[in-house]
Design a protein that fits this description.
The chain is of the alpha/beta class. Helix content is 39%, strand content 13%.
């Protein structure tokens, strides 16, 4: 995997290629979001992940326009929020998002959360949205195996991506194996566990071994595990640091060691409780 680069992409099951590393903008306030996205694009990032509920789609769009990077070279993701789920509601929601983003399309539109009683109708809406060209691909977020099994009984279009919390301390192997078997890319959000495990002595030991930061070790692990990764930061130094993970490779022995760190440690919501 040493040949990976910041602009490396992976193919999806819906004829779009996805940059393996992106910038997440959750909890980034408007002005700081604008500056973060603009800096990330200037630094070589080509994958930006936002959502309707984040309240910063307009600033993401403005940063993209001011960056000077061609829109066609950027992989832009946004998400359908829970309050907008349902067939007709979702079709209205994408139009609102596109207006705020200032673009005719997004590259990936995700159902943000598997809302009971609405997620399958929302997926039907996403299929229509894709057919209309408002998004190039569609996927889900926070879907566990039962949610995916239920969805795949209802549709012929398999989600291109499942965006979930995933890091060395939360390794849902059942979900990962299921996604691999169905051709669904797993995208890791909160790859740094919101910093709550960043100073773990095991991470620090590896950081010293490879002469890298603790964050870089966690990001590199997720990339080598075959995930698409979207670390969130509004700090220019960290945005650059998070992308400086392509000049080293974790050894098979160290990858194997990290595979034993799972603690089912969640830092965000728990979708395993949703029926």
């Amino acid at each position: 995997m040493a040949e990976l680069k910041l602009n490396s992409t992976v193919p999806s099951n819906q004829s779009v290629s996805i940059p393996i590393l992106g910038l997440g903008v959750w909890k980034s306030r408007p002005k700081e979001c604008f500056e973060a996205v603009k800096f990330a694009l200037e630094s070589g990032y080509r994958h930006i992940d936002t959502a309707a509920i984040y309240g910063n789609e307009a600033d993401v769009g403005a940063a993209i326009r001011e960056s000077g990077v061609n829109r066609s070279d950027i992989f832009l993701v946004t998400k359908l929020w829970n309050a907008d789920q349902g067939y007709e509601e979702a079709q209205k929601a994408i139009d609102v998002s596109l207006q705020k983003l200032g673009t005719d399309y997004v590259d990936m539109y995700l159902i943000h959360f598997p809302v009971s009683g609405k997620r399958n109708e929302s997926w039907k809406a996403l299929e229509k949205i894709k057919q209309e060209g408002k998004t190039k691909s569609i996927g889900v977020s926070n879907f566990m195996v039962p949610h995916l099994e239920e969805l795949l009984k209802e549709t012929e279009i398999v989600p291109a991506m499942n965006q979930v919390e995933f890091h060395p301390f939360l390794q849902d192997r059942e979900l990962k194996n299921y996604c691999n078997a169905k051709g669904i890319l797993l995208e890791a959000y909160s790859p740094l566990a919101h910093g709550q495990k960043l100073e773990d002595e095991r991470v620090t030991k590896l950081a010293k071994k490879y002469n890298k930061s603790n964050a870089q070790i966690l990001i590199r692990w997720s990339l080598q595990a075959g995930n698409v990764v979207i670390p969130k930061s509004k700090n220019p130094i960290r945005i650059k640091e998070n992308a400086d993970v392509f000049d080293f490779q974790l050894s098979p022995e160290d990858m194997n060691e990290i595979s034993n760190w799972n603690e089912n440690f969640r830092t965000c919501w728990d979708p395993t409780t949703v029926v």
